[in-house]
# Entry
Amino acid sequence: MTDFGGALKKLSEHPDYALAVIGVPFDEKSSFLRGAAYGPAAIRRVSTGKCYNPDTELGVDLAEETVLVDLGNVDTSGDMLKTFGEIERKVGEVVAKEAIPVILGGDHSITYPAVKAVAKHYQNLDLLHLDAHTDMYEDLYGDRLSHACPIARILEEGLVKRLVQVGVRSTTPEQKALGEKHRVTTIEARTFPENLKLEFQNPLYISLDLDVFDPAFAPGVSHHEPGGLTSRQVIDLIHNLKAVIVGFDIVELNPLRDFSQITAALAFKLLKEIAGRAIRPRD
Ligand code: MN
Ligand code: MN
# Structure
C-alpha cells in the first residue's frame, strides 16, 4: 500500500493540503543509463505504513501535524517540452496555494521547470542543491536540457538569489568558473564539515540528487560516484537547516540499479525528514 508511512490523506477530503507529492516518471534527459522514470513508483511502493510510521526523527508526526496528499504523476507521454510544461503547471498549482510541492523524479533535468514554477511565486528564492555533480554544464553533447545542465539554466535565468551546493566531488573547470561567476557556495564532499549548520534568508527550495550519497548508501542511481556523503550526514544537515522550505525534489533514483530497495527507502526517509523540517522549522 502506498501511503507514505500512514501520513497520506485523500485529496478529495483535503483540498487545502500542506504538502503535495508529484511524481515525474521521466528519464529522457539521462546521459548514461535509463531507469529514473521508475523512481516515483519505487518510492511510493517502499513507503508503506506496514513498514514505516509517519514520525520523523525530530518527533514530527506527518499524519497528525500536517496534510500530505499525492497528486499522482505528471503526464510524460508527450514530447519533452510538453512534459516540462506539465511539470511547471502542476508545481505552479501547488505553490499558488502556498503548499509545498514534494517532487519525485525522474532524472535531474526536471528540477529546471520545477524551480521555474516555484520562483514565479517566490521572487526571492534560495536553492540548496545536494549532488555529487554541479550539474552546470553549458550543454552535454549539445543538449542544454540534459540532466547535467539544470543548474546552469537556473543560474542563467536568475531564478534563485543564492545557491549552495553540497556533496560535490565531480566537476570541471568550466563549471567551477560558472559557479564563481554566479557566487555559488560549494561545499565539496572532501571538505564536508561535521555539524554543518546552513542558514537561508529567503524561501528555500531543496533539490536532492540521490547520488550525493556514497554509492555504498545509495546504489540505486545511474552515476556511481564514490567518496560521497553518508545517510547520517545528509539527515543531520537537514535537521540543522535554518530556513523556510517551500518546495523540494528527490531525483535520480534508478530502481533498476537498486538492491533490496535500499535507495528507495533512503529516498523515502529523506522525504519524511525534509517534510518534517518544512512544517516545523528550526528556531
Ligand atoms: Mn544531479
Ligand atoms: Mn548527480
